[in-house]
Batch of 3 targets.
Target 1
Amino acid sequence: MSTASGKTAEDIEGWVKRYMELKSAYQEYCRLGKLIKKAVKGKRRFSVGQYLLTGKWVTRKAHIVPESKYWHLKIEHITGE
């Protein structure tokens, strides 16, 4: 059976199955991201093992949501080349 987009039920089932497999990995990714941000919040540069973490405070201007401030974190892998 085909859907309006021309994809078969088997195609969609495969996508849903893979989506559900990735869901727990994504949840762990988000949880670890929060832990890392909390641990280094306020530190502009932080080196740990093979990684360099840099961060900065960013002020979000008021438009639809009220003005707020959040910590933006960037993680880079340091290569030994």
Target 2
Amino acid sequence: MQQLLLNISDASKVDKLMNLLNSLNYVKIESYTEENIVVSEKEKTLIRNRVKNAKPEDFKNWDEFIDSFEL
């Protein structure tokens, strides 16, 4: 199984895309909004600690990272 997260900048195209995806019998669509995503306090604390303790060497240059893939 593959999962995709789509960010669609042109809202006028969403209905057409959803109609196409709904017509495929092997695709299940789940819609999420900020209101129905719950992040526990434990997870929030974990992320905050990771951000607080991050060092510059923990990060990669995005352009170099993308160039390392053969697309």
Target 3
Amino acid sequence: MDPLVATTVVSASGLGIRVVAAVCQYLGLRWRVRQEHAHRQTLVALARALPEGSRFREIRGDGSSLSLTVPPQSGRSGGRIR
């Protein structure tokens, strides 16, 4: 095989591997964004369903946490997610 052809084939293969890696990373990030969006929608629905004065705490697998307290109504509007 001609050295120029061999170099071209190796370079093209390396480029192809980088393109495939970039596409895989893009698809992984896209999946993560969709999962976070669905999780956010679930949390909003949960917050809307909680009665006044209740509390909710979530601890995620990565160690982050979320604490939510719905204050009791004291004759004023507010305290609910609309």
